[in-house]
UniProtKB/TrEMBL annotation, chains A, B:
Region feature (Disordered): 338-366
Source organism per UniProt: Bradyrhizobium yuanmingense
Origin: domain of life: Bacteria
Protein name, per record: Transcriptional regulator, LacI family
Gene Ontology molecular function: DNA-binding transcription factor activity; transcription cis-regulatory region binding
Length: 366, 366
DNA sequence: AGGAACGTTGACAGCGCTACCAGCAACGAC
DNA sequence: GTCGTTGCTGGTAGCGCTGTCAACGTTCCT
C-alpha cells in the first residue's frame, strides 16, 4: 500500500484493476493485447474501465515501454493543395488507430528536414513519413539507422530507405507531352515554379519527350524558384510568349499555373485551345470547372496519404507489405483546353454537362 | 549507484550531470530555468549537454511534471484553403518554442469535436486552439473546466471561453453587400455551400443588409449542405438564375464558389460585371489573377493562426494578454467583378460598412 | 499416471525526469 | 555575534505504466 491514492478523482490503471478485481498488469494487458486475457477478466476490465472513464496516460506508457505511438510526418508545405490532400489521407488512416500524427513543415529545405528528422528520431517515433527521395546524406543515414518503419511518399525512385509510395513525375510529364503531340500540338512550352525536386523531374520528363520528338528548345522553358501561384502562372506565360510568340501549347508544372495561363490568355484574347493548348498537373477540382475545361494529369494524392499511413501502421505492427514500393500511377485527364489544333478559334461554349464527359483515359502508365 | 548505466550510448540527464560535475536535478533545472543556476554551473551543464548530444526525454518529463508541452488544435477541415493558411500561422508561431502541435480534424461535426476534445484534455495539453464559437454544451463545460489556456479562432462572439481571435463574419458580409449597393447593384443573390456556422453568419449578414435596403427576397438565397467547390459554385448559380433570371449581383460565401460563378457566366456568355457582379469571400490568391479580377472580402487567416498560437504560448507561460478578445477585422477588396453597373465607371473607393475595423481598399489590382 | 506444453496471471523493478523540501553558504540587519 | 534572509544545490520519492520472469492451473500427449 505504498502509494497514496491521488487526491482528485484521477483514474489510473490501478483503480481500474481494483474495480475489476485483477492485478494492474492484467488490466494493462487488456489495453494492449485483449486476446491474451480470459473472456471473463476481459469483460470485467472492460466494464470497469468504461465505468470509471479511464483514459491511459500516454506519457507513462511511452516512458515504460520505451517507444511512442507517434507517427512523424515531414512535408514541405502546409498550404499547397497537393499536400493538404495527402495529409487528409494520412489523418484519415490514422484515425481509429492508436497512433497520433506529429506534423512538421520542412518548407522545401532539406537542411530543415534534416534538423526536424533529428528532433523526431530523438523521440523514438513509431514510424515516419517523409516527402520525396531527395534527402541529405546525413538525413539518409539517420533514416537508415532508425529502428522504425519509414515511408517515402510523393514519388518513387531507386533505393527506397524502407517503403515508398508515389508515382513517376517524369513519366507523368512525358505522358502529358505525348497527349499534346497526339492532339497535333508541336511547339510546347514549359512553365514551372518553385522547382522543387518533383517539379524538376516533371521538367526532365518534358525535356526528354520534346527531345524524342526533335522539338526541344531551351527557350521554350520558363521557370522560377518563386513559390507557385495563379498570378505567377500569368507572369511566366507572359515571359514565355515574349520569347516565343508562336508556341501552340503550354505544359504547366501545376494547376495553379495552368489557371493563371488560362486567365492570361483570356486577358490577351488568345483562344484556348484554338491558338494555345493548356495542360496542368495534379488535376485539382477547379480544372473540370474552368471554361474551357482544363486538361491535367491526375495524381492520387488522398489515396497516397491514406495508403502510406496504412502501410506504415501495418509495418509498425509487424505486418510488412509484400510490396514495399507502390506505384500509384497517374492519368492524363483530357479536357477541352488541349483538344486538337484544327478547332475554330473560339473556345467551345458547350452545355454545362458536356465539359466533364472527357474524364478518363489512363495513359501509358498504370 | 543504484542504476546501471544503460548499455547503448543512450544519453540521459544523469550522464550530462555527471560530466558537468553537478547533480541531476541541477542539470534538469538548466533546461527549465537556466537563470536559477550560477553562471559557472550553467556553462558547465551547457557544454556537457552539447558534448554528449543530449536530448531530453519528453515522455519522462511529461510523466514527472504532470503536464505536456503539446498544443492541441481542432479544426473542421484539412483541405479548405482557409484552414491551411491558419495552420501555417500556427505552425510558424510554434516553431522555435518548446511546444509541439497536435492537430485533429473535426470534419465540421461538433460531436466529433466533443469526442476529440475529451481525448485531448485527458492528455493534459499545455493549451488548446479550437475553431469557432459553436460547441456542444458538454464541450463548453469541458473547456471551461480545463486548466489550460484556450483560444477560439476564426470568429468572435460573446462569452469567450478564454481567449478569442477572429472577426465578425456577419459584419463582413454586410460590408460586402454595402459595397455592391454602392456600386449600384440592387438584386443581389446569395450562394453558399457547406453552411457551417460561419457561413451561416455570413448569410445572416447578407439577409440583414438586404432587409435594411428593403430588397430581401428568400428566393435570392441558394444554399446547400454539400462541401464547397468551384464546380458547385456554377451549379448553385445555375439554380439561382433559373429562379431569378434578372439578378444583377451574386455574393458568394467563399472564393471557390465565386470562381465557379465566374466560369458559369463565361459559359453562358453573361458579362461580368456588365450584367452580373460577383463578390467572393476570403480573398484567396487567385481572385486577383482572374479575368475579370474578382472582388472579395479579405480575411487575415495567416495572422489569425500566428497570433492565436502566440497568445496561447504567452498565456501558458503566464503572460496573459491584456486583451483576451482580438478582432482582426476584414477588408473588402474591390476589383473589377463588382464595379459599377454603367460600363464607363471605374471601381470606386469607399469607406463603407458598420464595423470600424473595416477598411475598404482602393483597387482593382493588388 | 506423469510430464510437457500451453495459456493465463501476478510481483517486481524500473523507464528518465521533476516536485518537494532540506541543507548549506553568503550576506545583511539588529 | 546572532538571527533571519536569500540564492543555490542536492536527496528523496515518486509520476503511471510496462518488460521480464516466475508461478499457477489446465490440457494434451505418451
Amino acid at each position: 500500500m505504498g502509494r497514496k491514492r491521488t487526491k482528485s478523482g484521477k483514474i489510473r490503471l490501478a483503480e481500474v484493476a481494483e474495480l475489476a478485481g485483477v492485478s494492474p498488469i492484467t488490466a494493462s494487458r487488456f489495453f494492449r493485447n485483449p486476446e491474451a486475457l480470459s473472456v471473463a477478466k476481459r469483460t470485467r476490465v472492460e466494464s470497469a474501465a468504461k465505468e470509471l472513464g479511464y483514459v491511459p496516460n500516454l506519457a507513462a506508457r511511452a516512458l515504460a515501454s520505451q517507444r511512442t505511438e507517434v507517427i512523424g510526418v515531414l512535408i514541405p508545405s502546409l498550404t499547397n493543395n497537393v499536400f493538404s490532400d495527402v495529409l487528409r489521407g494520412i489523418y484519415d488512416a490514422s484515425e481509429g488507430s492508436r497512433y497520433s500524427i506529429q506534423l512538421s513543415n520542412t518548407r522545401y529545405s532539406i537542411l530543415q528536414e534534416e534538423k526536424l528528422l533529428r528532433l523526431f528520431l530523438a523521440q523514438k517515433p513509431a514510424g515516419l513519413i517523409v516527402t520525396g527521395i531527395d534527402q541529405t546524406a546525413e538525413s539518409r543515414a539517420m533514416l537508415q539507422a532508425a529502428d522504425c518503419p519509414i515511408v517515402q511518399i510523393m514519388e518513387i525512385g531507386p533505393d527506397p530507405v524502407d517503403m515508398m509510395i508515389g508515382f513517376s513525375h517524369y513519366d507523368a510529364a512525358r505522358a502529358a507531352i505525348a497527349h499534346l503531340f497526339e492532339q497535333g500540338h508541336r511547339k510546347v512550352g514549359f512553365v514551372g515554379a518553385r522547382m522543387d525536386p518533383r517539379v524538376q523531374r516533371r521538367l526532365d520528363g518534358y525535356v526528354s519527350a520534346m527531345k524524342d520528338a526533335g522539338s526541344f528548345d531551351q527557350r521554350l522553358v520558363v521557370t522560377t524558384a518563386t513559390p507557385t501561384s495563379v498570378t505567377l502562372g500569368g507572369a511566366l506565360f507572359t515571359d514565355l510568349l515574349a520569347r516565343e510568340p508562336d508556341i501552340d501549347a503550354v505544359f504547366c508544372a501545376n494547376d495553379d499555373l495552368a489557371l493563371g495561363v488560362l486567365f492570361e490568355c483570356r486577358r490577351r484574347e488568345i483562344a484556348v485551345p484554338g491558338q494555345i493548348a493548356i495542360v496542368g498537373f495534379n488535376d485539382l477540382e477547379f480544372m473540370a470547372a474552368a471554361v474551357p475545361t482544363l486538361t491535367s494529369v491526375r495524381t492520387n494524392r488522398y489515396e497516397m496519404g491514406k495508403t502510406a499511413a496504412t502501410m506504415l501502421i501495418d509495418a509498425i505492427e509487424g505486418r510488412r507489405p509484400e510490396q514495399p514500393v507502390l506505384d500509384l500511377g497517374f492519368k492524363v485527364i483530357e479536357r477541352q483546353s488541349s483538344s486538337a489544333r484544327r478547332s475554330d478559334s473560339r473556345p467551345a461554349v458547350s452545355a454545362a454537362g458536356a465539359a466533364n464527359k472527357m474524364i478518363a483515359l489512363p495513359s501509358s502508365h498504370d
